[in-house]
Amino acid sequence: MWRLSRWSRGGSVAAAVPVPQSSCCWLLILLIIGQTVYAAASIIESSRLESTATQPQTIAPSSEHRVQQQQQHQQEFGNASSTTSDYRTAFAAAASTTTSTTTTTSSTAILSSSGEQHALTLARPPRGGRFKRQEEEEEIDRCRLFVEGSPNKNELYSPEYPNLYPKNINCTRVITAPKGQIIRLDFRNSFNIEAKEECKFDFLEIRDGQYGFSQLIGKFCGTDFPPEITSKERYLWLHFHSDDTIEYTGFSAVYEFLDRNRESPSTDLNCTIEKDGFEGFINSTDVPADIREQVIRDKIPLDCIWRIQVKDNWKIFLKFLTFQLSKPNDCETNFLDIFPEQTVMPLRVKNFCGSAGESITTESNILHMRFYAEQSAITSTFAILYTAFRDRGSGSCASDEYDCEDATCISQELMCNERDNCKFRWDEEKCKTETNGQSEHVVIIIIVFGLILGGMVITFIVNCIRKIIRDQKIIREHIRESKESKLDEMGRNSKARSRENISRP
């Protein structure tokens, strides 16, 4: 509104002074503030509900929905069972000549007086059943002479030497020299292992490296002494195997450590990456920068091992997130190999050297993954999610576990973590539904609030414009009336002066 101010004398209009009309404008402002506070409170409440919804839920999707989802994902994960079958077939082939007396042991280290690790016990192959502790201890003892030997004298022997070695035995050890040194192995006194073409029955296998896939030096049997063996780096991998028939006296050997030739670059990258826990990621970026620099500087291949170990009696599920080799389908230049606890080629679970990786399930709680790349392929990239799980069997999952509805259980901690830890993604299905529902509610609230606020602003602007127009009309009308009044007054004054002039003599 506008209020007219007049001079006290003459009754003429002097000015139009604008004064805000508080009765209307302040009411609109209070309404806007109230709506803003209400909308903010609604958004905060919806955010709280969304946060609550993202906490682990044990409610599983409906059975009908599960069937539809399982059919949808069956093709992607259908190879998991075939992988398990291939794994068991490979293991059966590797141990076809062994029985339940296959020697097993834990990872015990033999230390020299200098504190360097020089030998490791044999690795335990995956088992299909449970073994009694007494049987395991007996089997460990059978390999002890091969695994431990005589550390003070740096000697090693075939199992139960100088007596006949046992039937059906598999013993593995790794001789490790101090850093900067190499190993020289020499067989003395006796070497007598069952002779057969290609050493099919009993044999001693030696590899130049730390693993069962390292470069093969030789597979030895018969009565001829093997030549003196010198490693290129600080590791020698040895494996002794016997079948279920003829036994012989075996062998004895002595090893010593020598300083390596400093002129040639070392190929010992010592690239071993340890992983554990209920879940985790295996990435090409895990390789330390100094190792990559050494590979480029010395022009040697990149050869790294990831070792994943989860709880006893649990297994490991691998899911590829990304997989891009620099030289796809060139299986000599770059590849990924998956091994169980033993890193021997007959037990290799899977080899990836193409353009895609598929999900893998292992049969033990220990998994090894080897990444090999020549100089031309060291830019290969990959990202893998691993999840620890256990077979539910005929029982049920524990209170701190989540049932994946595929006869497996995972840790309850993995629920609603935005990662698909179950093979068929049930651990994230319910969470996504609730989160999406809360997000839709927030969007609806924001839209309604925007419409209300927009309508209020438009109404306020329209009312203000209408008031301005109306006040301008009132001002103009008052000005017109003032002018007319002034003219009338001037006319009356003129007539009065005329009469006065006429009446004067």
UniProtKB/TrEMBL annotation:
Domain of life: Eukaryota
Sections of the chain in a coiled coil: none
PANTHER family according to UniProt: NEUROPILIN AND TOLLOID-LIKE, ISOFORM B, OVOCHYMASE-RELATED
Signal peptide boundaries: 1-39
Classification via CDD domains: CUB (cd00041), LDLa (cd00112)
Disulfide bonds: C397-C409, C404-C422, C416-C431
Keyword Ribonucleoprotein: no
Residue ranges with Polar residues bias: 50-61
Keywords: Disulfide bond, Membrane, Repeat, Signal, Transmembrane, Transmembrane helix
Record protein name field: Neuropilin and tolloid-like protein 2 isoform X4
One Pfam assignment: CUB
Domain CUB: 143-258, 271-389
SMART domains linked: CUB, LDLa
Recorded name of the encoding gene: LOC117578092
Residue span of region Disordered: 50-82, 485-505
Cross-referenced InterPro entries: CUB_dom (IPR000859), LDL_receptor-like_sf (IPR036055), LDLR_class-A_CS (IPR023415), LDrepeatLR_classA_rpt (IPR002172), Sperma_CUB_dom_sf (IPR035914)
Lineage of origin: Eukaryota, Metazoa, Ecdysozoa, Arthropoda, Hexapoda
Residue ranges of the TM segments: 442-465
